[in-house]
Request: fold
Amino acid sequence: MAEPTFLDVPFAVDARGRTAVTGDDDHVRDMILQVLFTSPGERMNRPEFGCGLKQMVFAPASDALAAATEQLVHGALIRWLDPVITVEAVAVRAEEATLEITVAYRRRPSGERREETFRHALAAAAS
Reply:
């Protein structure tokens, strides 16, 4: 049986000049990425979607920022991706000018455990 294909995120054109597609594993990673980096209010038909991580860009890196971000990310992933994944853990490290977000989850219904790490530059890196 062929693996399902989904539009790749971000949208791109592949080497054949067609819309780029991706497999099931990368699609789940793309969905997590969309929840993390979409700000509430950014999507017209779903204004509550996202977790507001971009709002943290201008906050100074600290343990308090990391703890608040863990709660923010964990709640958003449960809210938006609960039918797709079971969130086991979210770990956030604030180091110098970067937030590093690690999400441990299980895929539904297979139960396969995965762990993905996402990095986001804070304002100090942009200046």
